[in-house]
Amino acid sequence: MSARDASRLRSARWYAPNSMRASAHRQRTLAMGFRREEFTGRPVIAIVNTWSEMSPCHFHLRERADAVRRGIWQAGGFPVELPALSLGEVMVKPTTMLYRNLLALETEELLRQHPIDGAVLIGGCDKTTPGLLMGALTMDIPAIYVPAGFMLSGNWRGAQLGVGTHTMKYWTELRAGAIAQEDWNEVESGIARSPGTCQVMGTASTMTAIAETLGLTLPGASSLPAMDANHVRMCSAAGSRIVDMVWDDVKPSTILTKASFVNAMIVHASMAGSTNAVIHLLALARRAGIPLAIDEFDPVAQKVPALTNVLPSGKYLMEDFYFAGGLPALMQRLADRLDLSALTVTGRTLAENIAGAKVNLDDVIRSVDDPISSEPGLAVLRGNLAPNGCVIKPSAAEKRLLKHEGKAVVFENIRDLNARIDDPALAVDADSVLVLKMGGPEGAPGMPEWGGLPIPKKLLEQGVRDMVRISDARMSGTHYGACILHVSPEAAVGGPLAFVQDGDMIRLDVAARRLDLVIDDKDLAARRAAWVPPPSPPQSGYVELFRDRVLQAHEGCDFVGFGRRGIPEPEIF
How far is 134 from 314, CA to CA, in rounded Å? Predict the structure, then answer.
């Protein structure tokens, strides 16, 4: 709506009519202490807030919502805060991925059922970003995303620590007997020093950067530390901007194109970002009505070098990335590869948003001629073990393992792994291939981050720190290693992973993009014919819905039949 005609606002359907029902809407709003002039004739802006005291990533968002509110008032809007499901990684069991789609449903319905003209979505922890955006893309009213920001850098005895990456590293050293319990306690106390998301290039920072690349945040928003005053100012600015977006009718569908998603894949590759982003980008593209397939990620990753020298593939932390110039500076380094004509929530193009950005620390944001690794940040593999694809992050694995053949050591599920992984009698050596089944969307259920299988303790004591590991699960974006993830179809639905047995030879060739079970086709067919699906224990109602509706990893794990645009507006009687 180019003209500021209040009668065209969506909220006017609730507030404007001279009817008993509209009068009831006005009465209840007046009952909360608002003046009539504050909510009539103004865009009603939802602040969809995932604040929670069980989510340290979002612990500060109660205050940030106040900054957003301030910006909305200043721009002439009417702010209303709507609490939404807070998906705090680590605390939520069995996995936040199980509830990403629930947050998407909640966001969509919060916006549909209320008199909302536009939305500011506040979140940041791993599954929160795609969950909020999936719902907003389906609803397709003006929306802007506000990333929660990352926590302060960790420190132990003068050395930087990054949550997740160094958690895994030092826990491994504790299990190997290389550090003492007292050392571990110090690491535990120094690694997470403030609210905010993980301060490495894990899933949280990967997805907020992708949201910015898609044009759904203000410029530089994804690179701001949670505890920086600039973060508060960004929140206020987002509140102001959403009001203009409503008047100008700038919706996700106005912004998002196939070029937007190609840009996101390019930036993801340049960051050596989390492998989880593949699943989330597939789901977001589906919600945006834009065709995107898993095989499109690999050619991009092969052509775009990893430039972001941040853990787990590099050595710095997100605060260093911020000081180096952040995402706008990285995109400047990629300017000749990006479609800079793509539109953004600012009303300007990507080119206009990053104009003037520059790299301040060349070792943190490398040039195309000086990447952090000769290996790409992502590879998509296929073969008889993963007919529909799987992924690996070559830049975070020991190079010697990228072409490997070894005997399978099979764990039928996570309980089996936990019971036997450190058994001295486990028949495993450094060349073995660890295989975990039943970690996928239906099997786990929810596809938890079990894919970073631990190295058996007896091998740790021998100095082994990486092995080929295969599963239908995911891996934390903060982790590293030669982990092959998202094997599709998963074991629970009869994918080939279900038929792997101890002692089978498995061949990995990342350069050839192959993952194969070395077995005769007839033998594989016989195992398939003899396979009996494992029993499914009873679950809660939502989990049963999830298992019944969820798509496989190569399709983004969204729900079948969900995410349709163009649903009729609720009738008001």
Answer: 30
Question: Please, are residues 164 and 198 in contact by the beta-carbon 8 Å criterion?
Answer: yes
pLDDT digits (tens, 9 = 90+) for 322-331: 999 999 999 9
Q: Left (φ > 0), alpha (ψ -120 to 50) or beta: where does 215 sit?
A: left
- The DSSP secondary structure of 280-299, one letter per residue, reads HHHHHHHHHT----GGGHHH
Q: At what angle do helices 61-74 and 229-248 cross, to 10 degrees?
A: 50
* CA 331 to chain CA mean position, Å: 20
pTM reported for the whole predicted model: 0.96
Residue whose C-alpha is closest to residue 570's, from 16, 10, 126, 61? 10
Whether the per-residue pLDDT at 1 is higher than 60: the answer is no
Q: Which residues of 476-493 are buried (b: 16+ CB within 10 A; e: fewer)?
A: bbbbbbbbbbbbbbbbbe
Distance CA 511, CA 253 (A): 37
- Angstrom distance (rounded) from CA 92 to CA 12: 39
Distances (CA, A) of 326 to 29, 83, 440, 567: 42, 30, 34, 38
Cα 4 to Cα 10, 141, 242, 247, 345, distances in angstroms: 13, 16, 14, 6, 18
CA 57 to chain centre: 14
Q: Which among 406, 361, 371 has a CA at the least distance from the CA of 515?
A: 406
Mean pLDDT across 157-169:
94
- Fold that domain 379-535 belongs to in CATH: Glucose Oxidase; domain 1 (3.50.30)
Among 91-95, 118-122, 540-544, which range has the highest average pLDDT?
118-122
Q: Show me where the domains of the chain are located.
A: 42-153+193-354, 154-190, 379-535
Structure tokens at 526: 């016989």
Q: Can you tell me which residue has the tokens 């694995």?
A: 397
Q: In this structure, are residues 116 and 109 in contact, taking their beta carbons and an 8 Å threshold?
A: no
Rounded (10°) angle between helices 258-271 and 276-288: 170
